[in-house]
Amino acid sequence: MFVSAALTFLLGATSAFAKPPARTRRVCGTVTTDEQIATMEKDFAAKKVEVGNFTTQATLNIYWHVVSQDTTLSGGNIPDSQISAQMNVMNQAYASMGYSWVLAGTTRTINADWFNNAGPNSSQQTAMKNALRQGGVADLNVYSVGFTSGSGQGLLGYSTFPSSYASNPKDDGVVMLYSSVPGGTAAPYNEGQTLTHEAGHWVGLYHTFQGGCGGSGDYVTDTPPEKSAAYGCPTGRDTCSGGGADPIHNFMDYTDDSCMNQFTAGQASRAHSQMATYRGVS
């Protein structure tokens, strides 16, 4: 269950060693109101840096922070091999967008409170990010945790948006479920697309179903309108009249990892403009 909460207005204790809750549906916490989106889009329109040709790959750093409750894999201490596999998934997913990712560093921290209770707007996530964040505005910090209690309970991940960096640099980044990496136990969300999705918010993209069938939707013209999130892999689903079938294979929907395989050219254009405007990356 994805949660993207970046912005202070966006959206982790049963016992400290509680069994993680079952995750049967993807849910993302980038839950922004129409008013909040209007504010963000007004700011973007005023500051927008247009990016023309972005065929040259831009390389972005990832600093990975493994936060676990103990030294075991079931306690969140994912091995370097799974992080490497996740990096491969990211590079495959973002190649068409013109971004490549490199692992700039990995930290490992045993903190059961952070592991279980870090979630959107929680004191645990604030302490965790303040202690661990590395790099600058164009560096993605990823925190893998357990999401067993509190505001993050049952989530797959959440992220900040580019426009929120200036007001709260330490908050910038993605918090994600440790078992959603390739080979993890969070099936059907264990092929690495949780980070792909959350990083999509980090580069400036909304959900494909943002705004439903009306209005400006996700502010991308080549993603068909979609009334609500899609789950599983419902081939042929079409919830809005006109515009074509729902974009169930898009990384910014809620379908199973195995169903996701694409960003559109319009999403790439928006991401590059967002990144140039707010992160100084063309």
UniProtKB/TrEMBL annotation:
The UniProt entry, under CDD domains, shows: ZnMc_pappalysin_like
Domain spans labelled Peptidase M43 pregnancy-associated plasma-A:
185-273
Q: Which residues form the signal peptide?
A: 1-18
GO terms in the biological process aspect are:
proteolysis
What SUPFAM superfamilies does this protein map onto?
A: Metalloproteases ('zincins'), catalytic domain
List, alphabetically, the InterPro entries matched: MetalloPept_cat_dom_sf, Peptidase_M43
The UniProt keyword set, sorted, is:
Disulfide bond, Hydrolase, Metal-binding, Metalloprotease, Protease, Signal, Zinc
Q: Which Gene3D superfamilies match?
A: Collagenase (Catalytic Domain)
| Family matches, as Pfam families | Peptidase_M43
Q: What's one GO MF term for it?
A: metallopeptidase activity
Name the protein family.
Belongs to the peptidase M43B family.
What is the protein name given in its UniProt record?
A: Pregnancy-associated plasma protein-A
- From what organism does this protein derive? Lyophyllum shimeji
